[in-house]
Design goal:
Blueprint (H helix, E strand, L loop, with lengths): L2 H7 L2 H20 L12 E7 L5 H17 L4 E9 L2 E8 L5 H14 L12 E4 L8 E6 L5 H16 L5 E7 L4 E7 L1 H7 L3 H11 L2 E7 L6 E6 L5 H5 L2 E4 L3 E4 L4 E7 L5 E4 L2 E2 L1 E7 L5 H18 L4 E7 L1 H30 L2 H24 L6 H30 L4 H31 L3 H36 L15 H14 L2 H23 L13 E7 L6 H15 L5 E10 L5 E12 L6 H10 L21 H12 L6 E5 L7 E7 L2 H15 L6 E5 L4 E9 L1 H7 L3 H12 L9 E4 L2 E9 L1 H4 L2 H5 L2 E3 L5 E3 L4 E9 L2 E4 L2 E9 L6 H14 L7 E4 L1 H32 L4 H6 L6 H11 L5 H30 L4 H31 L6 H44 L15 H30 L14
């Protein structure tokens, strides 16, 4: 069925259909979530186990290994990693993508339940949670109030702000940074305790049992039922101080007589500074699948309500990732519009007709907007990748319409009416348009279903392009011919006279004729193309590869680490020094510090996360064109006037270089730069079961890798040894006195840090439960002699010094432990200097590791961007091979020929040279956006070859000699090929200039595509005609060889379609009318014979 003819004859139906699609698309566009990157749906489950006072080594042996062994046998587990710090062990289990999250959580819970009895009795109940937070914090706020104490301000954040935000749609987690929690601290006098024969643990136990409200059953007094409650809670600090504590021999003492009772806050374990000013801050994390922008708008609205109710409290935004996400969104929209306008301008310059230009331009919104409906149904978001797909498809969306309208205009110039021209031109070009569309779909469908993390990115790109070009096919077959039939005029055709084609077309026609006339010239042309291909591949091999292009995100995140024995005060003093050093640097707007934690979430007093917020860069297409494009012209560029640029002009990589130069002067710190994904630019895991071997290997490798010139700031994140007090029981003496190791541990824990948090006594104050922490005075905790003199109760009830039953010594211990795949792991990472690609640094890294002599038990494992890049390249190659096979199948089915589709397929490598040259000139690496661009080039090159070959085949069917048919195809199809290629390149130009947020992500792709389009267009127009004839020779040869083995095909009359039948009917009717007129004339002559005049001898007048 000829859909174009049907649409022309029935215009209402397609118009209504596309009106409905536009409405659905606009609604979906307004409701789609806006994120920075696609949502990566991988099941990640965490198991947290806490035990106050437990060392990392103790937790690793007794808890972490048990949990890792339990979950390792679960089906679908991809990776197991653990972090063990003082008192807490966190194990993360990453599952393969095909495993549903709910199934993963349940499997982990079942595995942990099976080994629960094997864990120490003193640990808290393991907490199993799915990781439902996407990436890093999207926003961070600082809270200040002059009339509040630190504890009151912290409670305001926890109670008021968190309550206003938690549970809102899209908010995954809210973390408070800095501040302190209220507690009642009881600092016991050791001398008083010794005199009374009581320990801190005894006091803690009595308070836990007496200062509590407990439900105690039900009564039925006076015929009614009542609840029975024991009200032991004192409910105020003076009453708590007056609590009676029982001691031995029927003696009692008031709690106030044993030490000081202080209403205070917990000892700080973290802090927050904004430009060296103390603040209490909180960070917002979005849940998986939520929109960054929608969450930010919701947070802003909720915080405005909090500000209105609490005018004395200041809540200021200090870090905002959403700005970059929204900036990318607006920049992508602007780039789409700018590219579309440039493409339409190119169409107008070629066609020189506003009606044809309007009809072509309408194809853009009609193809792009309905695609948003598909995105919503597929559960996608508006992100860098999906917008990249639409940006890249801008030229292609108008491509089919250009081919259609150009062909219609040519038919109008033949003298046909626009109505007839639209029907016949659409029918003539139909196969080529359908073939080009389905080849693009065939390329991108396999890529859409790649495995692993790269597949989560490519699925949104591939399906977005596929559906948008399918919509463009519908527009080209239903809307464009119909509009042309009713809107164009007879004068809208372009001149077909060869003398008016212009100098370029005449020269091109002569060139095609020269390269195709003899078989020697054809093969010479192919040999030149082969040489060009070999050189192109050689150039492409010189292009470095990377996962993501370098990006100017406007923020620099540093992980700062102090020596293992550093206190929180020392950490604060050192980061204050860092802030004073870095804040004056050009381009730095503010410095925000989170103390007591690393950017990756490691909780240690000696760690800090320092975030430098940079001034924003102004993104202006006009200024970019004037200052960079025109100003970069050779010879005259430096002398041309420049436009003033507002905002930051120094690129981020230069500021990073200054930052590390300044930090070298600050002693006793280890600083690592983290990217926006919370990892180093490049990092490798080194694993071993032997801790000593791993430590030795890391020391050797760090020294070796620091000599590699393409690696900067090489450092390991392995834990450093720290001083610790080790208690070694005197087993014989403990047995004689009836004292257990558990008693010793409890006595020391309660005296130094208080009881386990979950077991602390509580008191009701101001409508909330406040923990009561019983511990020795600070002076005793700082004195080793006082610790040795702590009393412990024997089985007989007598008090003996702790030194009687244990030895206490200084020694070295590990501060934290990291594990991966059930082995100890240390990550060695490095920053990549400007201009160094990931694969170059990776090769140098591996080469240095191979040359180093490290223990045999230590092995290397890829992680981070290096691991993802390797997966991406492997998956990409497989998907591309499958895509080429699908393209071949589609072409064979459409052309009903086996040989000529190879002409189209083998023309694909012609774009490689343009890609390589463009990347080398602009110093860009072969990254994920570039690979996406190469995919699109496959479709574009295929389109050019299809337009040429389809026309040549059609001419041969009409009896034209094959060389003449190919020359004619070049002459008639060069114009739409060049027009669409320039339109696509123009549509890419704003992206190539890197304008707007996320421009550094789009720019390499656009540059590669423009370079590939230019070279492939030229090569296609020259090489494909010769290649077509060579393949035709091959087809004849194969027919001669195998023709005897295959019977001759019986010629069958093909069924006529509606349009052909209509034409035949019209022709037959015209012939019948002519015959009837002639018959009428004959009959009239017979009835009135003419009067014969005198004639000559032969009877003539």
């Amino acid at each position: 069925m000829n859909f174009s003819a049907w649409s022309i004859r029935n215009p209402i139906a397609p118009l209504l259909g596309f009106f409905l699609l536009m409405v659905l698309g606009i609604q979906s566009f307004n409701s789609l979530p806006i994120t920075r990157f696609p949502n990566i749906d991988v099941a990640v489950v965490s198991i947290s186990v806490t035990q106050s006072g437990a060392s990392p080594s103790e937790l690793e042996m007794q808890v972490t290994k048990e949990i890792e062994d339990a979950v390792a046998s679960i089906n679908g587990v991809d990776e197991i990693s653990s972090k063990v710090n003082d008192g807490v062990s966190v194990t993360s289990v990453v599952f393969r993508i095909e495993i549903p999250t709910q199934q993963a959580v349940q499997d982990v819970k079942d595995a942990v339940d099976r080994i629960r009895n094997d864990l120490p009795a003193g640990v808290d109940e393991p907490i199993v949670n799915k990781v439902d937070v996407e990436g890093q914090a999207i926003q961070t706020f600082a809270v200040s109030a002059p009339n509040m104490t630190l504890e009151e301000l912290s409670w305001f954040v926890d109670d008021t702000i968190k309550r206003a935000l938690q549970g809102q749609k899209g908010i995954g987690r809210i973390d408070r940074i800095g501040g302190a929690d209220r507690e009642i601290r009881i600092e016991l006098d050791p001398d008083r305790l010794n005199a009374l024969g009581i320990t801190a643990a005894d006091v803690n136990k009595q308070l836990r049992g007496t200062n509590v409200d407990i439900g105690s059953g039900r009564g039925q007094v006076a015929g009614a039922e009542q609840a029975i409650r024991v009200l032991g809670d004192t409910r105020n600090v003076p009453a708590l101080a007056n609590t009676t504590i029982a001691i031995s021999s029927d003696r009692f003492v008031k709690l106030a007589d044993l030490g000081r009772i202080i209403d205070t806050y917990t000892e700080p374990k973290s802090f927050a500074l904004l430009d060296n000013q103390p603040v209490v801050s909180f960070s917002i994390f979005r849940s998986k699948g939520a929109s960054d922008v929608a969450v930010a708008e919701l947070v802003a609205k909720s915080l405005d309500e909090v500000r209105a109710k609490n005018p004395d409290v200041g809540i200021n935004l200090i870090s905002d990732f959403v700005y970059f996400t929204y900036g990318n969104y607006t920049a992508a929209i602007d780039t789409l519009l700018e590219g579309a306008i440039l493409a339409v301008i190119v169409v107008f310059l070629f066609l020189k007709n506003w009606r044809a230009t309007l009809i072509s331009a309408i194809a853009l919104p009609l193809s792009a907007i309905p695609t948003f409906w598909i995105l919503e149904m597929m559960g996608f978001s508006l992100n860098l990748v999906s917008f990249l797909a639409l940006t890249l498809a801008t030229g292609i969306l108008v491509d089919d319409a250009i081919v259609e309208i150009e062909n219609i205009a040519r038919h109008i110039k033949m003298g046909k009416t626009p109505y007839r021209a639209a029907i016949e031109a659409a029918d003539e070009i139909g196969l080529a348009v359908i073939a080009t569309t389905f080849t693009i779909v065939a390329v991108f469908v396999p890529v859409s279903f790649m495995g692993g993390i790269p597949g989560q990115y490519f699925i949104q790109f591939g399906l977005t392009v596929a559906f948008s070009v399918l919509f463009s096919l519908l527009v080209a077959r239903l809307i464009t011919p119909m509009m042309a039939a009713y809107l164009m005029r007879p004068e809208d055709g372009h001149d077909e006279d060869e003398g008016q084609e212009g100098r370029f077309m005449r020269r091109y026609t002569r060139l095609v004729s020269a390269t195709t006339r003899t078989w020697q010239r054809r093969y010479l042309t192919l040999a030149a193309a082969l040489v060009f291909l070999v050189v192109s591949v050689g150039l492409l091999m010189q292009v470095p590869t990377s996962f993501m292009p370098p990006e100017d995100a406007g923020r620099i995140t540093l992980s700062v680490e102090l020596p293992p024995n550093a206190t929180l005060n020392e950490t604060e003093n050192r980061v204050r020094q860092i802030t004073e050093t870095l804040k004056p640097l050009a381009g730095v707007q503010s410095v925000f510090v989170q103390g007591g934690t690393s950017p990756s979430g490691d909780l240690e007093l000696r760690r800090a996360s320092v975030t430098l917020q940079l001034f924003r860069i102004e993104h202006s297409l006009v200024k970019t064109v004037v200052n960079k494009l025109i100003g970069g012209l050779p010879l005259i560029g430096p002398y041309l006037p420049k436009m003033t640029v507002d905002g930051r002009t120094i690129p981020q990589w230069q500021i990073e270089k200054l930052v590390f130069a300044k930090l070298r002067d600050i002693p006793d710190i280890r600083v690592q730069k983290m990217n926006d994904r919370g990892a180093r630019d490049m990092a490798f895991y080194f694993l071993s079961k032997n801790e000593e071997d791993l430590t030795e290997a890391v020391s050797i490798l760090e020294a070796k890798l620091r000599t590699v010139p393409v690696l900067a700031n090489v450092s390991a994140d392995g834990s450093l040894p720290r001083p610790e007090l080790q208690i070694r029981p005197k087993t014989d003496e403990m047995a004689r006195l009836g004292i257990t190791a558990q008693q010793v541990s409890e006595t020391l824990r309660v005296a130094t840090i208080g009881d386990i948090d979950a077991q602390l006594p509580k008191i009701s104050l101001d409508g909330r439960l406040i923990p009561i922490r019983v511990q020795a005075a600070l002076g005793q905790r700082r004195d080793l002699g006082a610790i040795r003199a702590l009393k412990i109760k024997s089985a007989s009830g007598s008090m003996v010094p702790l030194s009687t039953v244990v030895d206490i010594d200084y020694t070295q211990g590990i501060s934290s432990i990291k594990r991966n795949h059930r082995d100890r792991v240390v990550s060695i990472g490095a920053d990549l200097p400007q201009g160094v690609a990931l694969d170059t640094a990776t090769a140098a890294f591996k080469q240095a590791v191979a040359a180093a002599k490290i223990p045999a038990s230590v092995y290397l494992k890829e992680t981070g961007d290096t691991k993802v890049q390797k997966e991406m390249l492997a998956s990409f190659v497989n998907a591309m091979i499958l895509g080429l096979l699908l393209v071949l199948i589609v072409l064979i089915l459409l052309f009903k020929d086996i040989i000529q589709p190879f002409t189209i397929l083998l023309s694909l490598p012609l774009a490689v040279g343009g890609v390589a040259v463009a990347l080398i000139i602009t110093h860009n690496a072969l990254s994920m956006p570039v690979l996406i661009g190469i995919l699109m080039l496959m479709g574009i090159v295929t389109k050019n070859a299809i337009l040429l070959i389809d026309f040549a085949i059609e001419m041969r069917r009409h009896g034209m000699e094959r060389v003449e048919a190919m020359v004619e195809a070049g002459r008639k199809r060069a114009r739409p090929i060049i027009m669409t290629s320039i339109a696509m390149s123009a549509g890419m130009l704003p992206s190539a200039l890197g304008v707007g947020e996320g421009g550094s992500f789009r720019s390499p792709m656009a540059i590669a595509v423009i370079g590939g389009i230019i070279v492939s267009t030229v090569m296609s127009l020259v090489v494909v005609p010769s290649f077509f004839l060579v393949m035709d020779d091959l087809s004849r040869l194969l027919s001669a060889i195998f023709g005897r083995l295959v019977g001759a095909k019986e010629q069958e009359r093909e069924p006529l379609d509606t349009a052909t039948l209509t034409d035949l009917h019209d022709q037959t009717s015209a012939q019948i009318s002519t015959l009837e007129a002639r018959m009428d004339g004959l009959e009239a002559g017979a009835a009135h014979p003419p009067r014969r005049l005198s004639a000559g001898p032969f009877g003539r007048d």
